[in-house]
Amino acid sequence: MSESTLWAPWRIDYILGDSSEKKEDGCLFCRLHNDDDDQKNLILERSEYSYTMLNRYPYSSGHLLVLPASHIADLNELEGKAYIDLMLLLKKSIWVIQQVLQPGGINAGLNMGTAAGAGIADHLHFHIVPRWSGDHNFMPVIADTMVMPQHLDSTYEMLKPFFQDRS
Q1: Active site includes 125?
Q2: In CATH, what number is assigned to the domain containing residue 101?
Q3: On the chain, which terminus has fewer CB atoms closer than 10 Å, C or N?
Q4: What pLDDT, in 10s, does the model give residues 75-99?
Q5: One of 33, 63, 123, 125 is an active-site residue; which one?
């Protein structure tokens, strides 16, 4: 049996801690939202009060983040139209993942606060993680590495038209 090499060069920024993002002041999610280059920032959809983007460091292919446009840390701070808008975009994002990627299941959730596991605790965000039977293997355990079968740019190109077509 010959040895194979698995290359996932986009993961090195996460492993080493992407220093370019750390040099900038302020909230990463606010910077991405305020930038108009949606493709570069992996933003798939913008609604009046919220937006959906691909997670740059995904747990699985198609891992999305759904966020309020406003910089808030607690779901209880969202009221009225902003809350409804976020929930509708969350629902739409799950629908798109189901239609395009056809996973066996989906993990959708919110880690509110550092103690709950939020990596960026100051800006509320929901995770949508598509799941397939057998989608995780030994790599995270022995090599602290996730295997992604599809590049982020390819996933973006697959999902983007579905966000544009469904209101």
Answers
A1: yes
A2: 3.30.428.10
A3: N
A4: 999 999 999 999 999 999 999 999 9
A5: 125
